[in-house]
From TrEMBL:
The keyword Transmembrane applies. Keywords: Membrane, Transmembrane, Transmembrane helix. This is CD-NTase-associated protein 15 domain-containing protein. Residues 76-214 form the CD-NTase-associated protein domain. The chain crosses the membrane at residues 9-29, 41-61. It comes from Mesorhizobium australicum.
């Protein structure tokens, strides 16, 4: 999530953590000579680095987000956990002009469960369609905080696999999504668009809309 912060803000946070670590080291060691000063600085650097690593790679960060809710708007919202997923594609419009597809039989709406794992350093998203028809995992996720408006987005590249594909499907294809986080709604929602290269050689590559609604208490994490 740190990628959503502007560089000056990120630098200030790192310096603040370093300063607190230095104060703590000074109080513990209470140096009186150059050797003591060197130990103090070394202790502070090690302590600050350890704190950042533990905070960034463990669920501990969620404790801070719960104690200080403003972090959801200042840094990035806590979106970890399970979300009910609905996608609506343009496959019906494609089918109207495609000889291999019947507009009356294509599946326009797809439902499933999106699981998001989030840490300060990374976000991953995985989708399981209802009935295990298809599954998607992200290869790349970038959190975005829009300058000026303060709106939050995630953009992703994903890989979809369909174990038992229909004639219009591919067993595997790639796609991308651009989703806005509407964390202040009750329940929280995310909305956006997606597009894929599914069966693009036959002119069946799809696009559409995505809607996610939080389906469970916040959990998950890297």
């Amino acid at each position: 999530m740190y990628q959503a912060l502007e560089k000056p803000t990120l630098i200030r946070i790192v310096l603040a953590i370093g300063a607190l670590a230095l104060i703590a080291a000074w109080l513990v060691i209470r140096p009186t000579d150059m050797t003591g000063y060197a130990r103090t600085v070394s202790f502070a650097i090690t302590g600050a680095a350890a704190f950042i690593m533990i905070l960034g790679t463990s669920p501990l960060w969620r404790v801070f987000w719960k104690i200080f809710p403003f972090l959801n708007t200042w840094v990035f919202p806590n979106i970890s956990g399970e979300w009910a997923f609905i996608a609506e594609s343009n496959i019906k419009e494609i089918a109207a002009f495609h000889p291999d597809l019947d507009p009356a039989k294509v599946k326009v709406r797809i439902r499933g469960t999106m699981t998001i794992r989030q840490s300060l350093f990374a976000i991953s998203m995985s989708l399981t369609g209802d009935g295990d028809y298809s599954m998607s995992d992200t290869l790349f996720v970038k959190p975005i905080k829009e300058a000026g408006t303060g709106r939050f987005y995630v953009t992703s590249v994903f890989r979809n696999s369909t174990p038992h594909p229909q004639p219009s499907d591919e067993q595997m294809h790639m796609g991308a999504a651009y989703i806005e986080i509407l964390a202040t709604r009750h329940p929280p929602e995310m909305k956006g668009v997606y597009w894929t290269n599914r069966n693009w050689q036959k002119g069946m590559n799809t696009a559409g809309t995505i809607k996610l609604t939080r389906a469970s208490p916040k959990r998950g994490g890297a």
